[in-house]
Design a protein that fits this description.
The complex is a heterotetramer, with two copies of chain A (79 residues) and two copies of chain B (138 residues). With 79 residues, chain A is α+β, with helices and mostly antiparallel strands. Chain A has helices spanning 10-15, 29-39, and strands at 2-7, 19-23, 50-53, 56-57, 70-73. Chain A has one domain (2-73): Roll (Ubiquitin-like (UB roll)). The chains are: A alpha+beta (79), B alpha+beta (138). Chains in contact: A-B, B-C, C-D. Chains B and C meet through helix 1, strand 2 and helix 3 of B and helix 1, strand 2 and helix 3 of C.
């Protein structure tokens, strides 16, 4: 399936783009994180990073399907 | 009542405080974040804030909703600014009114502590010799 | 730095906050006391504050000095109003700036808690049917 | 000796004056409180009251001498 990943903060630098269109078969956020970590080893150097699906933080078992708004979220630092 | 905003323009501190005051409030606690001139001993020129706007608003609203549930507060306001801010400028204002001050203090502190953990806003420190995304690396 | 005032005119909240902000501050916590419209379920028309002025100033200064010693804060301001205040008006503003927010919150809360215990200021609640000196009787 | 007592809050109502000139022999703040409580029984109904000597809260053993600025301070309620 085709999914769009929104990137923020340092993830934008790692992806070298504010969003990424990818074609892949991942059932859940955990599988997506694994796939991304393989493709972008810089992600593994972060303190941590989260996946958000449709504006909610996902756990590894959160399902991903075509059309979802998926974001890759590095450590937040608002305030 | 709740007022949440993510904005490019400067936060109007006085208007924020005015909005939370009600005739039933005995006290207001306000937290004002300000851009410091140094971090870990290094001179900071500016901070550049970006947000995942839709989710940041929804996470800020969650905090406000939770505050309203957990403490007897009258109103809570959270205004966060994005964009490039110089030293002394204000990235965030959180104001809470309550009949009694303990609730206002507890709720305001909980709100800023939680915002810094959960709201997808990201800041880059701009130094004379480069830029660093805050907290990105261990 | 410390700024202590006892005054008849309205406290200028924005000016108080402006005064505590410094380039080394990462955050400011502000407590704003406001006159509530009810106390123990009874409608309040106004509060009338009087002070033993010389000693009130000296006790407020003690609090500020103690805060500066106990917490790494940049500035603390305590402005207290006296005279007759209507519902919604502001008897007191305490503002504290610090490099880190924990110190600002702790110091501000300590200051208002201590002010309410030690500073010789006395308020009378004015009801439709009479007046009562607050806390005078057990 | 002659001393002047400043009264605040409800103590002003009890003394029926903002200040009181009295002629008495009291060595310390404790003795003064006792003397006042005898003369103004309403004071005993207060939650508590303090004596301040020269702008400092006094204990019962704080000495009092002519010329001191002495204040009778009912429960405070600022803020």
């Amino acid at each position: 399936m085709k999914i769009t990943l929104l990137a923020f903060g340092i993830v934008k630098d790692i992806f070298k783009a504010p969003q990424l269109e990818i074609d892949c078969e991942v059932a859940d956020a955990g599988a997506l994180k694994q796939m991304l970590a393989d493709k972008y080893p810089e992600l593994k150097k972060l303190a941590h990073y989260m996946v958000a699906v449709n504006n909610e933080y996902a756990t590894d078992t959160t399902a991903i399907k075509e059309g979802d708004e998926i974001a890759i979220i590095p450590p937040v630092s608002g305030g | 009542m709740i007022d949440i905003q993510l904005q490019n323009e400067a936060v109007d501190i006085a208007a924020c405080i005015e909005w939370v005051r009600t005739p039933t409030s005995g006290g207001v606690d306000v937290f004002i974040g300000t851009v410091r001139d140094t971090t870990k001993g290094k001179k900071v020129l500016a901070l550049d804030f970006e947000a995942y706007a839709a989710m940041a608003l929804s996470e800020m609203k969650k905090i406000a909703d939770e505050v309203i549930t957990k403490w007897p507060v009258d109103r809570i306001l959270i205004h966060h600014r994005i964009g490039k801010l110089s030293v002394g400028e204000v990235p965030v204002v959180i104001a809470v009114s309550a009949a009694h001050r303990d609730a206002a203090f507890d709720a305001c502190r909980y709100a800023i502590d939680t915002l810094k953990k959960t709201v997808p806003i990201f800041k880059k420190e701009i130094f004379e010799d480069g830029e660093v995304w805050v907290s990105a690396h261990p």
